């Protein structure tokens, strides 16, 4: 599968390469692992995930961790768009940003509802369900 | 060396100038200035500290959030203003907008004038919206003294009209070609004809509804602690002067107290009312204030949070008795004032109060008249006495018992007869919506050839559903402005959306008949027989849940106005998920319906279990979404595409790539599947299921069981058979593990379960295990068996849920324990028989359809030599027979001795549903061949993707991989 020869401002952006070649050239350390330019965003995502798992008791911290997690993923997409000269990455990043905003807005709504009716945003205060 | 150089240059540039004498002189003035400023600040602070030192520690000082606004009252509300959140959300919106503007600026060279004007239109829209909000006073922080800002009148509305027209013209101008613009506008007009009309109508109406909502937001501070103590203190320090000003101050202060929401019981209000009585007798001069306070107190007494009607009544009676007993009401004006005040208070409280408004208003009015009649009022003149009394009573009763019209409505200026205008308007809207609903399928579905028609024809059901949601929302806004009760509106919108969903299912059927199968949006959305049938299944199950939640809406003490809309929106997102042809669009749809589910669970926020269910589902769903998102990204990174058919192509052809990046691929696929397992409540993500099922309201539990499962499983099957079919070795172990553990976990946990909803959760985990078993086999027949079992799963669960959702215990609550079914068999023999058949089918007893479902699944797994999985499936099927039989035993063989059995009133539609689900289970043995044949066709429509013959994609633009 070959890519077309694309020029933009008299500058060749993508050369005729097979998908594998492109992958190996643009992602130098991709043999078995993440390419180096993705380490940052992966760690953003990973720390967000860890934050959610370890700080599950406080809802606010969880919300921040969620944001971090989504930020990591969105950054990955945008970085992909930049490094690989693929505008789709940026577009997906925008779409996901909107989702992240929605999620955080609804999360805030849940937070308010929990505090208004339950008088607590502590996860341990919500432990009455069970067999 | 580099570091040293860096240090030198840093020193040269920044630090050296500070040291050198020349520069020091220039900076000297600055330093002095800073020093002076700091000392001045310190001085001022010290002075303020010295002079403002006071030992006043009254309740106002001790109350929280004194940062420039006044907290508003309510028993269980937050002590700070909603405006905080409003502003926060505004910031969030601007955040998103900036994210949108940034790439626009960067890409302006590419997008050119078209992009420029498009964005200009967007900004214009935003600006108009912003101005609108500004005019409406959303940005003004309302305080108690300030009049509530709100704009009414036809003048303002005409301005809004003008802005709308302007907007339309600008939007038309963005399209350089006038003909094209006209064409698009015409399409928009015919398709969404009711939309603009409704919007205009809503503009007329929204002023009144806005005012109601603004007035509803009462603003009284609160200091929750030591109320009785404060009152005692107040009683002790009686002022010597009977000055009206002092009284007013005092009353203001007591008002703060009285309106504070520290009153745990209504008895506190009674005490407070007694206190007001003493105050009243002392200071007869400050009549106005006193009346205001009393009226206010009465209003607070009627606060919705005091469920005990008797206590409220007692408090009210005390208040009015006091009011009349003290005989401080001298004139007709006073009475009118009281009525006016009461009228306003009641109107303000109207939305908050539970129960039927007119009835309680009537009761209140009657009470007042009773007192006024009992106690002979002493007016200065006899004539005015009688007249005033009568008129006051009349006006009072009329005002109180009348259904409140919107307070300021200037429609009269436009139309002579507003009532007739409104009714004709409604009729027009209904006709228009009906026209737009029924006109289009005939035109577009049949003539699906040129691009826009093809687009409309293929995307019609989703578009119609969106339009319908918009119509219903606007109608809600309009009718809310007319002062209708929220419960009625919710029930009405439920009915209309239910009909709408049926219509959508019919549209899908029509599309299936016409053989519409095209990719849309460059293949981000797919349509094939498979997606159409599964969308039909999703829509119909969603419709079933929606219609079953009518009773829930009806009996719920709080208003659930947006419940039907949110549920339908969730269904819409599920439809998009089933039809997704790209990883990103699938993810968007998936998160879209999850967002709606959070809201749906937490609609019942007053119940503690629902809150717990909501927070737990939010946690786990977000984690799973995050995992899915990163998995999606990894797959996209490696494969360079997210289109299912392209992924399949790349995986089949680019073997070198797969070898080079197998780890990343495996990781991405694992993340993606784990996320999906969470949504399906299959093995690694099964832990939330029981608690969320238990805590959610009944219809939402059913919603989790039926449409969510159907949609996600349909998507999973499509993903694995079209995109990742060449990489079967990568996902097969994951699915197998998940299937095996789900089977075991669900069946073992359901054995000892006593609560119905938890039991349903575990049973559905077990059934999901079976469904995954078919996918794990990875063969054509296995997928077919999965689809068959999915169909049967939906049918069986619908049958069971019909009864479960409508069964009520004697106290009106839904069934909690399985043993609540006791005596059901004796009372409802027919229903019990159907349930028994359904349960036997779930267990897999031979003549029934469930047996064939499980048989095919196990058979085809065995053909693929998945012997371990088959053994687990057989064992759990055997064990599951026990717990299904247990319910049948409770139903039929455990009599209700000494307890009233449950009641279950089914309408004829529900009875029909139950009968149909039972009889389809019986008849499957006779009519199995057509079903299997149909499913064969569906699976082949999936497999077509793997041939890459382009049968479904010959219309596909070649821009999907334009990079």
The 3D shape of chain A can be described as elongated
Helix % of chain A is: 55-70%
Note the beta-strand portion of chain B.
under 5%
Oligomer type: heterodimer
Low-confidence stretches of chain A: 1-15
Task: Categorize the overall geometry of chain B.
Answer: globular
Order of helices and strands of chain A: EEHHHH
Largest interface: A-B, 71 and 67 residues
Structural classification of chain B: mainly alpha
Calculate Rg of chain B over CA atoms.
34 Å
Number of helices of chain B: 38
Number of strands of chain A: 2
**Number of helices, where a helix is a run of at least 4 consecutive DSSP H or I residues of chain A:** 4
The major pleated sheet of chain B works out as: 2 strands, antiparallel
Name the average pLDDT of chain A: 77
How would you describe this protein?
The complex is a heterodimer of chains A (131) and B (963). Chain A is mainly alpha-helical. Chain A has helices spanning 19-26, 39-54, 59-83, 87-118, and strands at residues 6-8, 11-14. Chain A has a two-stranded antiparallel sheet. In chain A, helix 2 runs antiparallel to helix 3 and helix 3 packs antiparallel against helix 4. Chain A is elongated. The relative contact order of chain A is 0.10. Chain B has 38 helices and 2 strands. Chain B has a two-stranded antiparallel sheet with strand order 1-2. The chains are: A mainly alpha (131), B mainly alpha (963). At the A-B interface, helix 1, helix 2, helix 3 and helix 4 of A face helix 4, helix 24, helix 25, helix 26 and helix 27 of B.
């Amino acid at each position: 599968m070959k890519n077309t020869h694309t020029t933009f401002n008299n500058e060749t952006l993508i050369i005729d390469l097979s998908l594998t070649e492109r992958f190996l050239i643009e992602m130098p350390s991709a043999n078995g692992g993440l390419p180096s330019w993705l380490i940052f965003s992966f760690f953003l995502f990973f720390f967000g995930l860890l934050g959610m798992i370890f700080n599950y008791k406080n809802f606010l911290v969880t919300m921040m961790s969620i944001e971090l997690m989504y930020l990591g993923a969105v950054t990955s997409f945008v970085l992909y768009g930049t490094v690989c000269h693929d505008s789709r990455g940026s577009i997906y990043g925008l779409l996901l940003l909107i989702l992240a905003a929605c999620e955080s807005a609804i999360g805030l709504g849940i937070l308010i509802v929990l505090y208004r009716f339950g008088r607590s945003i502590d996860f341990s205060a919500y432990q009455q369900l069970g067999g | 060396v580099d570091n040293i150089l860096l240090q030198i240059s840093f020193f040269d540039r920044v630090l050296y100038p500070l040291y050198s004498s020349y520069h020091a002189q220039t900076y000297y003035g600055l330093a002095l200035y800073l020093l002076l400023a700091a000392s001045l600040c310190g001085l001022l602070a010290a002075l303020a500290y010295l002079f403002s030192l006071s030992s006043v520690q009254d309740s106002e000082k001790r109350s929280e959030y004194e940062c420039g606004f006044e907290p508003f009252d309510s028993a269980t509300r937050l002590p700070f203003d909603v405006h905080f959140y409003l502003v926060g959300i505004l910031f969030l919106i601007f955040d998103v907008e900036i994210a949108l503007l940034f790439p626009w600026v960067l890409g302006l060279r590419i997008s050119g004038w078209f992009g420029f004007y498009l964005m200009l239109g967007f900004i214009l829209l935003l600006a108009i919206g912003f101005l609108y909000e500004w005019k409406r006073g959303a940005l003004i922080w309302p305080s108690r003294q300030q009049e509530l800002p709100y704009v009414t009148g036809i003048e303002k509305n005409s301005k809004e009209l003008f802005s709308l027209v302007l907007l339309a013209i600008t939007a038309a101008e963005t399209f350089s070609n006038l003909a094209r613009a006209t064409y698009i506008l015409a399409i928009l007009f015919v398709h969404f004809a009711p939309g603009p009309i409704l919007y205009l109508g809503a503009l007329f109406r929204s002023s009144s509804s806005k005012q109601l909502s603004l007035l509803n937001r009462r603003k009284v501070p609160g200091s929750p602690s030591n109320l009785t103590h404060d009152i005692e203190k107040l009683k002790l320090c009686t002022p010597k002067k009977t000055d009206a000003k002092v009284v007013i101050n005092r009353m203001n202060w007591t008002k703060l107290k009285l309106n504070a929401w520290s009153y745990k019981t209504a008895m506190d209000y009674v005490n407070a009312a007694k206190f007001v009585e003493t105050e009243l007798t002392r200071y007869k001069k400050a009549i106005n204030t006193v009346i205001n306070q009393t009226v206010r107190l009465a209003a607070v007494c009627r606060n919705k949070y005091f469920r005990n009607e008797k206590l409220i009544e007692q408090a009210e009676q005390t208040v009015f008795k006091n009011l009349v007993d003290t005989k401080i009401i001298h004139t007709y004006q006073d009475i009118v004032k009281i009525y006016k005040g009461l009228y306003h208070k009641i109107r303000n409280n109207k939305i908050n109060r539970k129960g039927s408004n007119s009835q309680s208003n009537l009761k209140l009015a009657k009470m007042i008249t009773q007192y006024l009649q009992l106690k002979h009022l002493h007016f200065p003149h006899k004539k005015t006495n009688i007249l005033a009394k009568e008129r006051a009573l009349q006006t009072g009763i009329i005002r109180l018992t009348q259904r409140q019209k919107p307070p300021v409505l200037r429609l009269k200026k436009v139309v002579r007869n507003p009532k007739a205008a409104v009714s004709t308007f409604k009729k027009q809207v209904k006709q228009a919506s009906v026209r737009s609903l029924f006109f289009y399928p005939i035109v577009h579905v049949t003539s699906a050839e040129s691009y826009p028609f093809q687009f409309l024809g293929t995307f019609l059901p989703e578009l119609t559903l969106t339009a319908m949601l918009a119509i219903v929302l606007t109608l809600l806004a309009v009718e809310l402005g007319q002062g209708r009760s929220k419960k009625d509106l919710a029930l009405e919108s439920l009915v209309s959306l239910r009909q709408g969903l049926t219509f959508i299912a019919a549209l899908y059927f029509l599309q299936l008949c016409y053989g519409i199968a095209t990719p849309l949006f460059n293949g981000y959305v797919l349509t094939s027989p498979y997606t159409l049938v599964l969308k039909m299944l999703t829509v119909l199950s969603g419709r079933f849940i929606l219609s079953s939640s009518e009773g829930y809406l009806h009996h719920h003490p709080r208003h659930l106005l947006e419940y039907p809309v949110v549920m339908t929106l969730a269904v819409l997102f599920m439809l998009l998920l089933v039809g997704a042809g790209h990883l990103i669009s699938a993810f968007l749809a998936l998160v879209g319906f999850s967002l709606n589910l959070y809201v749906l669970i937490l609609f019942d926020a007053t119940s503690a279990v629902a809150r717990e269910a909501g927070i737990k589902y939010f946690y786990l769903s977000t984690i799973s979404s995050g995992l899915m998102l990163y998995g999606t990204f990894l797959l996209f990174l490696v494969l360079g595409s997210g289109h299912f058919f392209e992924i399949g192509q790349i995986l089949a052809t680019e073997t070198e790539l797969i070898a080079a990046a197998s780890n990343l691929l495996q990781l991405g696929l694992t993340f993606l599947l784990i996320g999906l397992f969470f949504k399906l409540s299959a093995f690694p993500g099964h832990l939330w299921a029981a608690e969320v099922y238990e805590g959610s309201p009944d219809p939402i539990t059913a919603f989790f069981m039926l449409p969510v499962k159907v949609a996600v499983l349909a998507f999973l099957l499509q993903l694995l058979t079209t995109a990742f079919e060449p990489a079967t070795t990568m996902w097969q172990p994951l699915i197998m593990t998940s299937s095996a553990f789900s089977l075991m976990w669900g069946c073992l946990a359901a054995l000892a379960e006593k609560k119905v909803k938890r039991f349903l959760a575990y049973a559905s985990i077990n059934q999901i295990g079976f469904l995954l078993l078919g996918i794990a086999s990875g063969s054509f027949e296995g997928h077919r068996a999965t689809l068959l079992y999915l169909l049967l799963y939906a049918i069986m669960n619908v049958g069971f849920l019909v009864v479960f959702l409508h069964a009520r215990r004697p106290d009106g609550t839904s069934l909690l324990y399985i043993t609540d079914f006791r005596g059901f068999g004796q009372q409802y023999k027919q229903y019990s028989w159907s349930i028994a058949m359904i349960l036997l089918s779930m267990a897999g007893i031979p003549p029934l359809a469930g047996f064939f479902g499980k048989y095919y699944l196990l058979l085809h797994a065995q053909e693929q030599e998945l012997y371990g999985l088959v053994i687990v499936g057989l064992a759990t099927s055997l064990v599951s027979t026990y717990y299904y039989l247990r319910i049948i035993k409770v139903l039929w063989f455990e009599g209700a001795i000494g307890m009233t059995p449950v009641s279950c009133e089914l309408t004829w539609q529900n009875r029909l549903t139950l009968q149909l689900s039972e009889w389809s289970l019986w008849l499957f043995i006779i009519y199995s061949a057509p079903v299997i044949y149909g499913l064969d066709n569906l699976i082949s429509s999936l497999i077509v993707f793997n041939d890459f013959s382009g049968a479904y994609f010959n219309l596909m633009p070649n821009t999907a991989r334009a990079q």
